[in-house]
């Protein structure tokens, strides 16, 4: 198997912490000679946070949020936000910067950029947008904070305080990694959701915000979105703040301070671009429908909300509403009703992949498993290696006694597309259900490694190596991975690990 998991480089994180602490010593005493002793790797802010260090910090904070359950792992929502984000990135003139976009299950209207290109959007913000260009405008603004190195520049500008905060954050993360602690135990290190991770963003200057607006509007227009989406959303938030009491001001305005001058400037800049007529993508409407259902207290409340929107003249007939009604019915157990609604929707919208998955799932729920599998197989031929479709199909294969086939399909996908943690977990389940416990342990090792839990990953590889009848090829593969993981451990953990092996 070719492993495409994005393993956390713990050894590099240890180096990053030493670099941060060393940088703190240098900058706390404003001596030009000391600054000159730092390696010349770019702008002065790189001496505090290089791109590599930013990436390590952002990655571990992201995985800590993921392990805490705050990140939405719904495959359709996940794929949508990543696709629209990368569409913007493709027009941002970026060289070598990786991006990961994700949605946080939080009703607060906000978005944020972590170090290293990790950009989060709250469910509350996504639902607060009136159209896709407004959402894209927010993402373009956050992308621009990353491309303009505002986090690193903010840390540099507040050298003593910010650098110590970042060092403390990274240190807490490293303690969790080195000790194999439950990620939940170190979630406090990053604050409630992204609080600590936004330390640098809170300190963004007014010029940083103006620059992110200016660059972001250009990215938005170049990517084919309506450039007015950015100022339109800013003004919507501004109007909302004017009608609310101080403690109810949208969080977006607290972390992205908005002035009348700034709103006017962003609108004037957007007006310099040609007027474009844009339509919301199917992905935007599907994601909003799924988020409405996900964030509702119960499916009945979501269905009532969808029906109210259905009666609104400007919403009637929209995919978000029709699809939302169908999936809400599915959640309520009205599978026959949902099947009929989805069949009608799909007859006119064969190109919308989530409709195929939803129809197949509703068919299976009514007891017609063969029909459901046929629906999935037809969709897989039309849209090979689509991630959400493949995930839903393989979940059904596992649940209907076809785990070996699911394992094969997921392995093919994993070797072609960089997987999410959830995909790695699913292939582990498929392998285990198919009776291949060694492979299941191997995949779980990769799952733990992705979140930086190297001790748990090592334990899983040892379990894989202890499997009776293991052939030489698999033994060599598991041993190589085990040695790699062990090489990242601090010396103290290596000694404990070795002593444990000798006592067994």
Description:
- This protein has 504 residues and is mostly helical.
- The protein has a domain at 10-270.
- The chain is 66% helix and 3% strand.
- It is built from 26 helices and three strands.
- It has helices at 10-28, 32-37, 51-67, 75-89, 123-128, 132-147, 150-157, 159-179, 199-202, 206-222, 229-242, 251-255, 260-270, 282-295, 299-310, 319-331, 335-348, 353-365, 369-382, 387-399, 403-414, 421-433, 437-450, 454-465, 472-487, 491-503; strands at residues 100-104, 111-114, 118-122.
- Strands 1-3-2 form a three-stranded mixed sheet.
- Strand 2 (111-114) and strand 3 (118-122) form a beta hairpin.
- The longest helix is centred in the middle third of the chain and has 21 residues, at 159-179.
- Residues 1-45, 160-164, 173-187, 189-203 and 243-247 have low confidence and may be disordered.
């Amino acid at each position: 198997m070719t492993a495409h998991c994005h393993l956390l480089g713990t050894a590099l994180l240890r180096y990053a912490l030493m670099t941060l602490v060393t940088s703190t010593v240098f900058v706390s005493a404003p001596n030009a000679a000391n600054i000159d002793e730092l390696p010349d790797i770019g702008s002065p802010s790189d001496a505090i946070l290089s791109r590599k260090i930013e990436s390590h910090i952002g990655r571990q904070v992201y995985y800590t949020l993921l392990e805490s359950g705050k990140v939405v792992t719904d495959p359709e929502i996940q794929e949508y936000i990543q696709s629209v984000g990368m569409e913007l990135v493709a027009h941002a003139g970026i060289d070598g910067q990786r991006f990961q976009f994700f949605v946080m299950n939080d009703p607060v209207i906000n978005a944020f950029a972590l170090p290293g290109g990790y950009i989060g959007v709250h469910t509350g913000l996504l639902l607060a947008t009136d159209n896709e260009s407004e959402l894209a405008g927010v993402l373009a603004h956050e992308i621009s904070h990353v491309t303009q190195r505002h986090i690193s520049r903010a840390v540099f500008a507040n050298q003593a305080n910010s650098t110590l905060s970042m060092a403390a954050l990274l240190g807490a993360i490293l303690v969790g990694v080195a000790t194999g602690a439950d990620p939940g135990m170190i979630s406090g290190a990053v604050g409630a959701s992204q609080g600590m991770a936004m330390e640098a963003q809170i300190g963004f200057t007014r010029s940083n915000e103006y620059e992110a607006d200016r660059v972001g509007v250009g990215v938005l227009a170049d990517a084919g979105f309506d450039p007015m989406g950015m100022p339109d959303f800013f003004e919507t938030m501004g109007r909302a703040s004017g009608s609310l009491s101080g403690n109810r001001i949208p969080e977006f305005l607290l972390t992205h301070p908005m002035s009348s001058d700034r709103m006017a400037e962003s609108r004037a800049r957007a007006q310099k671009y040609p007027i474009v007529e844009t339509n919301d993508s199917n992905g935007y409407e599907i994601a909003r429908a799924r988020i409405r259902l996900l964030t509702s207290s119960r499916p009945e409340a979501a269905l009532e909300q969808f029906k109210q929107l259905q009666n609104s003249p400007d919403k009637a007939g929209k995919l978000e509403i029709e699809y939302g009604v169908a999936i809400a019915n599915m959640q309520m157990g009205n599978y026959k009703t949902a099947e009929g609604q989805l069949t009608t929707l799909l007859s006119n919208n064969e190109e919308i992949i989530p409709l195929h998955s939803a129809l197949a799932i509703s068919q299976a729920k009514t007891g017609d498993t063969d029909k459901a599998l046929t629906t999935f197989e037809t969709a897989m031929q039309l849209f090979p290696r689509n991630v959400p479709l493949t995930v839903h199909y393989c979940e059904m294969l596992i649940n209907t006694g076809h785990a070996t086939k699911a394992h094969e399909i997921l392995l093919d996908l994993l070797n072609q597309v960089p997987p999410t943690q959830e995909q790695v977990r699913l292939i582990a389940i498929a392998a285990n259900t198919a009776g291949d416990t060694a492979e299941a342990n191997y995949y779980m090792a990769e799952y733990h490694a992705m979140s930086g839990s190297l001790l748990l990953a090592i334990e899983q590889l040892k379990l894989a190596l202890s499997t009776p009848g293991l052939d030489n090829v698999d033994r060599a593969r598991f041993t190589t991975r085990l040695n790699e993981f062990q090489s990242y451990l601090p010396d103290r953990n290596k000694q404990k690990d070795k002593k444990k092996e000798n006592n067994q």
